[in-house]
Structure formats: C-alpha cells, structure tokens
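Case study 2.
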Amino acid sequence: MSDVLQMLVMAKYQFKSYMRAKRLYIILLITALVIALIVGVNSYFGNPSEDTVKKTAMDFANFAPTLVVLTALFFGGDAIASEYQNKTGYFLLPNPVKRWAILWGKYIASLLAGTLIVSIYYIAGTAYTYYFHNSVPIELGYSYLYALLFLASLMWFTYLFSSFFKSGAVALTVVAILYFFVFNIVDGVSQIAGVEPWFSITYASAILTLVFEGQHMGDYAHSQTLGHGLSITIYHPYLWEGCVIMLSYLLISAVLTMVIFNRREMK
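Prediction:
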C-alpha cells in the first residue's frame, strides 16, 4: 500500500471516529442553533429586506470567525494528544506507516469535517440573503474562501499545540484559552499601544467581515485614530495582509507539528 493510500485510509477512519464520538453531530447542532438565532433575532428586531444586501450577508459573516475557532477546537484540539492519552499510539505508530501519512491523514479528516461545517453555515447565509434580496453579494463568496483559509491555518496551529500535551482535555483547554482570551488580549493591548498586531491570527481573521466594507472590496481605512489627547489607533488588516498572516501560520505550524510528531516517542 502506497504512503498516499495509507494517508487516505487514515483520513477515512479519523473522520469515522468523529461520527462515532458524536463530535460532528454536536457541532452541526451548534451551527443550526446559531443560524436559527441569527435569523430569529434579525427578523424579530429588524427588517432584513430593508437593509442593504451586503448588510444582510454580513450579519452571517460576523459569527464566521468564532465558528471556525469552535470547529478547529472540536476536530483538532486533541487530535494528537489523544493518541498519547488513550495509548492508541502504541498500536498505531509501530505499524509500517510513515508518521507523516498518519499526521496528514488526521489533518485531512479534520479539515474535511471543518469544511463541511463552514460550508453549511455559508450556504445558510447565502439562502438567507437571497430570500430577502433576490441576490447575493460576491463579498460573501470571498468571505467563505477566507474562512476556509482561516480554518486550514487555524487547524494546523491547533494541531501544533495538541502535539505538546499528553492529555486531550488539557490540550483543548489550553487552545481554547489561547484563542478566546490570550489572542484577544494581545490584540487589544497592541492596539492601545499603537502597534499593529500583524503577528496575530485572530487579527487576520477580521478580513472575513472587512471584505464587506466600502463600495469596493478592501475599500476601508487601514487604521483609525479615536479620541483626542489620549488617543487609540485601531488597525484593520488589508485583505492581502490577512491572507499572508494566515498562510504564514499554516506553513510554520505544519512544519513544526511534523517535526514534533516525528520525534516524539510514546511513554
């Protein structure tokens, strides 16, 4: 059996494990609830048909970065750590399968599961927008592509942290704290200090909604100074800049994860 075929077999069984563990169904339920909440709140407190088509589409895109983070946590948070916690690595790693094939098989399964969730969410947003306006802005399509890039990079970054721990619960907790608290604090402190947080992946994820700003894609101010005297500069990543940051996270995290996974031994 070729290495590529072994990788695909690994991806197949990893995807099945998500279904057996009910993870896929849980995140699907969360996604459905979020969609219902957005539709319900917007319909009850406003009239989407009176909004611009971009505003209606943006109502869905606003939650997309959070959904991507949740998806990465669900499918990548303990993807590697669980092999050491459950001792399944004792049966998996000694087999005549290259470690890169195991790692990439897991990653492909995680990415496919995450892509399914994100796609369902954006399909719902597309249908919602079309229902009220009989049209869909092209920006929603670009936002979807940015969301997939964000997912791909964030999944590798999650795998990287998962490779440091032996406990799946610890790995999930650390990654969740990192995404929901540490990155947001760093972004906030950097902006207060007048420093653009170009090193933050959560800063880059803003392009999922910034693509709707202005009359043309990317037609928005890169920075805004608020207040007088003690002023604060708010930075907004360029669309190309957000993509570069995400790709950097993807490549660096993928390389580091493969190095760690290849060298780490079962104990």
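The two ends are 29 Å apart (CA to CA).
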